[in-house]
Design goal:
The chain contains 8 helices and 12 strands. The protein is α/β, with parallel strands linked by helices. It has one domain: Metallo-dependent phosphatases (Purple Acid Phosphatase, chain A, domain 2, 4-Layer Sandwich). Strands 3-2-1-11-12-9 form a 6-stranded mixed beta sheet. A 6-stranded mixed beta sheet has the order 4-5-6-10-7-8, covered by helices on one side. α7 runs antiparallel to α8. Zinc ion binds next to loops.
Length: 245
């Protein structure tokens, strides 16, 4: 089966629509959202509703999702993030608040494990180093675990010599999961990429061929930025979308 896997939408409806219409063209029917639907951007309610409207979708919580519903202290966030979270909190509908509140921290599926940050610390850990990868391996049983959170598309794995590799995943690059190993794949961010490429990032995973591919898609950044200015969200948060940083 082929899955459309995406993360860190961050209330960016234009980027999300681009990703979902790409998935539609690819005739994908099963979806996975790795958390942080909200925070930073101007359309939290619309993004939640769009994701809920997907028929077959598995969704887990991210740190921003938990913060806006009071399951995580705002003091954990930097000033700009917490200002956007206060704004989001004010605008979120009751129904969507309840939806975020019910999201699980981790999904342990037979084909894969899903966590926002890492399998060891699903909501908060920024998985960046080989040491962290090694420490996380014992926390998932499946051959592959998908994560988001850092907004950097990459893969963590041990090569044939047992050396830990952290490989950035370029657009269109196909990575084959070793069914006997433990690989962690970060699918990047839909709504606020930070790898220097401002295009939305998302992934397709084929659970039969065990291949994962990163896709990059242009979207109307100007439209998102204009909405952010109108909403008086911090200027830096809208400007960074142009640079993908
Ligand atoms: Zn995020």
């Amino acid at each position: 089966m082929r899955f459309g896997i995406f993360s860190d939408v961050h209330s960016n409806l234009e980027a999300l629509e681009e990703v979902l219409s790409f998935y539609k063209k690819e005739r994908l029917q099963s979806f996975i959202c790795l958390g942080d639907i909200v925070g930073y951007g101007p359309n939290p309610n619309e993004c939640i509703q769009r994701i809920v409207s997907l028929k077959k979708v598995q969704v887990i919580a991210g740190n921003h999702d938990y913060a806006v519903v009071g399951l995580k202290e705002l003091t954990w966030f930097n000033d700009l993030a917490s200002r956007s979270l206060v704004w989001t909190k004010r605008h979120l509908t009751e129904e969507n608040r309840n939806y975020l509140m019910r999201l699980p921290r981790l999904i342990d599926h037979s084909l894969f494990t899903l966590a926002h940050g890492s399998p060891r610390d699903p909501i908060d850990e920024y998985l960046l180093t080989a040491r962290q990868y090694l420490d996380n391996v014992e926390f998932f049983r499946t051959a592959v675990c998908f994560v988001g959170h850092t907004h950097l598309p990459c893969v963590f794995y041990a090569d044939s010599l047992g050396i830990i590799q952290i490989k950035p995943l370029a657009e269109g690059e196909v990575f084959k999961i070793d069914p006997l190993a433990h690989t962690i794949v970060n699918v990047g961010s839909v709504g606020q990429p930070r790898d220097g490429d401002p295009r939305a990032a998302c992934a397709i995973y084929d659970s039969d061929s065990k291949e994962v591919k990163i896709i990059r898609l242009k979207y109307n950044i100007d439209a998102t930025q204009q909405k952010m200015r109108q909403a008086s969200l911090p200027l830096y948060l809208s400007e960074r979308l142009s640079y993908g940083r």
